[in-house]
Amino acid sequence: MTEAEKERMRQIEEIYRRNGTDSFGQWGSVDHHTLYTEPVEPRSRRRCCCGCKRRATHRGMANGLAMMAGCEWSVAKWIRDNHHKEDSKHG
Ligand SMILES: [Zn+2]
To answer: How far is the CA of 77 from the centre of ligand 1 (A)?
Structure first.
């Protein structure tokens, strides 16, 4: 890990600590954590899982951990689907 990467990890951890998520990076769950998307490094050649045959350009993240990877559309859909699940749980 480079110094710049370590610094970025510290900044992310600080943000999460301030928000009260002290288990950041240790475990992630689509049911317990806010989901967000992050771009994948351009050198990654992982394929998307949705059948579009494109490269997985984004990751679906929860609590600092990658839960899935796919094209921008499939990650957005994954977040939407799981947020919907969250809504129905409270309803
Ligand atoms: Zn796709």
So the answer is: 10
Number of domains in the chain: 1
**Listed residues: CB within 5 A of ion ligand 1:** 48, 50, 52, 70-71, 74
pTM above 0.85, yes or no: no
Categorize the per-residue pLDDT at 91 as very low, low, confident or very high, splitting at 50, 70 and 90: very low
- For residue 60, being part of any structural domain is answered with yes
Instruction: Please give the backbone phi and psi of residue 36, each rounded to the nearest 5 degrees, phi first.
Output: -150, 165
Residue 34's domain comprises 27-90
Residue-wise pLDDT tens digits, 42-58: 887 888 988 999 999 99
Least Cα distance to 54 among 76, 70, 38 occurs for 70
Residue 50 in domain: yes
Q: How many CB atoms lie within 10 A of CB 80?
A: 11
Does any domain span residue 75?
yes
Within-domain flag for 5? no
Quote the ligand 1 centre to 50 CA distance (angstroms).
4
